[in-house]
Q: What sequence folds into this?
């Protein structure tokens, strides 16, 4: 996979949460949903898809890739990395979406922006695994392709995200 050096956590300390404490939720409580209730969907109903139907793909078909063809990579080639090389990180190091990493800094996938509210999260094989829904400017809700809420991504203040499971455990990050 081609990752520009400025977005590679092994090469750039500014995007590596273990070298930059400002983007590390274990060291910066402002970006940790366990410490900042405004970023915690269990405490802030506006970013909870079970309580806010506008960010619930079961109740809002405009953010559901199964129901809206413009969000479906099998129906819209512009958001399919197999059909559009400029969004394929194996062919381009300047994708506009996010690269995702586990806590060891190993790449796990990448995102492709499908609309202002929705991005598709692809695994390392280029298969769409999840989709993200913009809950607000700081939080993305992550659903599997069946629409089940799986994760919460919280901005780290630099247009990147920290990824948390539903219990607030830090899983990874994006650049």
A:
């Amino acid at each position: 996979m081609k990752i520009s050096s400025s977005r590679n956590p092994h090469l750039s300390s500014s995007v590596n949460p273990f070298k930059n404490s400002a983007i590390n939720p274990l060291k910066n409580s402002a970006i940790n949903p366990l410490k900042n209730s405004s970023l915690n969907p269990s405490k802030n109903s506006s970013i909870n898809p079970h309580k806010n139907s506008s960010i619930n793909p079961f109740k809002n078909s405009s953010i559901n890739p199964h129901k809206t063809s413009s969000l479906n990579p099998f129906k819209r080639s512009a958001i399919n990395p197999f059909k559009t090389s400029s969004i394929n990180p194996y062919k381009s190091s300047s994708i506009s979406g996010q690269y995702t990493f586990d806590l060891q800094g190993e790449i796990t996938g990448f995102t492709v922006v499908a609309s202002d509210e929705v991005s598709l999260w692809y695994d390392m094989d280029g298969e769409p695994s999840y989709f993200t829904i913009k809950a607000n400017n700081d939080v993305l809700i992550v659903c599997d392709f069946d629409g089940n809420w799986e994760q919460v991504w919280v901005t780290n203040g630099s247009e990147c995200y920290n990824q948390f499971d539903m219990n607030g455990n830090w899983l990874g990050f994006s650049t």
